Backbone:
């Protein structure tokens, strides 16, 4: 694809073409250098058209009900005339190859709706609960005119807290439980979530869900909130009966208003951009450094010595840095 | 200092000289390249004599009672015939210049004891709740024969969770509080703490302290523990009456035994060494990259554009990486 076609793609994208959006995200997720170059060019062209959506992260263990909540929210939001894009990050290791199709099939309420864009991405190449190109994909969805961008992440893995670095608000989903049955959220996530939702609050589980919500409401008082402006909200909902789903959306809107009024929303986004830049520079330096196969072998050998405790880490680092 | 004197210092250190230890830590904390070289040499010589201590992190807000607990623990441990070293990391910004002397004066019970080494370090040059040379200082204390190394950190700042990267167990200290009075721990810290101690459980505050401990005990069930082997312990103590301090130590010993039995203690230390190596390489690459004053100016300018949202972070990164 040439510069001209990047410009053409930019035009289609800002005209709201979902097909163009799908192609652009494929480019953004590609590991090929030429695709990365087109993506940079495309994003630079559409940059003025980005930044206007509500960026929402939804995270929780597999089976907690992320897709069904998103489905219900999607119906609600499209009913309000909003266009909604869903980027589902799925660690390829966790499910079988066809992960996303399964997800899309489950989100049946949404799939039929032209106001809705659904996209599954394997997070294979990166860790942290976001995938390669997630940041770019959010911008692309915004350029295509989507009002709400939801990043859905399975809250597993080592550093799944990265989702908080790309969205305005993290919603953590929890199963109802009682006493020792509580699954316990992955470390780090609970402290980043500004809205916690206990799912499956229906039928025989309503009381358990309310009890769990109370536990989390009390528990979340134990650590300082992320923002001085916002006391984390703990809600219950049933994607089955629909009850509580409107409250989840109301909390998102209230959160955005609250942080916007305090100037914190724009501040956070500026910090996220800065962090993205810093990480991109560090990644580039590391990639360049590791590109030499001899050095890659040396690094691996030094690493073994360090792990075994035979080599001081700073000595190993010096040897790596001074290697030809 | 020449190679020869690094060797001499290594001999004095492994002979248990506290004066040599103090000098070695000064070298380790220095930002001078020649001092860093001596430190590497010295540590390489004494490496076989390291690794044998219990490394304990104690963290909590200013005024929570870290120093008094450490004082009481120190008297207890020296009574058991153990040698104890305390590295107090003090963000220089938080207190006045003479921070450490104040700390040492407060730890009066310890100061008189030759079995005890006290060292204050300003964390001025690094963030993360540990200072420059903290990792090296721990190794130096071990080489000098100390059985217990306590890293005391004020749990403030952006990424104070770094203390967990250098010790075997983090003890988080909390004030007694009730209901909305709860201070709330800094984000991240609570989830890394495997022992939580509610301080000042004496006099009129005993009930409040017990109540607070109950709150934290329930609250900590809400997220998955750091280790599958260890359910975080929540204790109360009074450094004033001494009550509960022995239990804190018993919990530390039990924690160590538990993780040692599971093979997790050595595993964690290997991962900490690996992380130190990785960070040292990344720091070196960044330092080299930023060393050119023209590039430093360019980075600052690019950063402004990125923060303002006028420049795509990946485009800015590419410009930085391809700058001459």
Residues:
């Amino acid at each position: 694809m040439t510069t001209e076609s990047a410009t053409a793609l930019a035009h289609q994208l800002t005209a709201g073409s979902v097909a163009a959006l799908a192609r652009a995200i494929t480019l953004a997720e590609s590991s090929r250098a030429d695709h990365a170059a087109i993506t940079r060019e495309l994003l630079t062209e559409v940059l003025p058209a980005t930044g206007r959506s509500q960026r929402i992260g939804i995270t929780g263990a597999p089976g907690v009900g992320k897709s069904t909540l998103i489905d219900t929210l999607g119906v609600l939001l499209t009913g309000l005339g909003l266009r909604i894009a869903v980027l589902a990050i799925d660690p390829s290791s966790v499910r079988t190859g066809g992960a996303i199709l399964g997800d899309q099939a489950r989100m049946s309420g949404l799939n039929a709706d032209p106001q809705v864009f659904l996209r599954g991405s394997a997070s294979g190449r990166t860790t942290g609960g976001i995938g390669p190109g997630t940041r770019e994909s959010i911008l692309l969805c915004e350029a295509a005119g989507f009002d709400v961008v939801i990043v859905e992440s399975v809250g597993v893995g080592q550093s799944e807290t990265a989702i908080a670095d790309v969205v305005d608000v993290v919603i953590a989903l929890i199963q109802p439980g009682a006493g020792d049955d509580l699954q316990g959220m992955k470390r780090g996530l609970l402290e980043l979530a500004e809205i916690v939702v206990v799912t499956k609050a229906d039928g025989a589980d309503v009381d358990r869900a309310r009890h769990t919500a109370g536990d989390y409401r009390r528990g979340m008082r134990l650590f300082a909130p992320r923002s001085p402006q916002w006391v984390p909200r703990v809600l219950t909902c049933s994607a089955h009966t629909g009850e509580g789903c409107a409250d989840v959306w109301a909390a998102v809107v209230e959160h955005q208003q609250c942080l916007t009024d305090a100037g914190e929303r724009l501040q956070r986004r500026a910090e996220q951009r800065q962090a993205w830049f810093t990480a991109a520079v560090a990644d580039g330096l590391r990639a360049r450094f590791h590109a030499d196969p001899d050095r890659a072998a040396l690094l691996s050998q030094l690493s073994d010595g360090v792990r075994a405790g035979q080599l001081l880490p700073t000595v190993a680092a010096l040897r790596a840095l001074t290697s030809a």
Notes: Residues 135 and 276 of chain A are 9 Å apart (CA to CA).
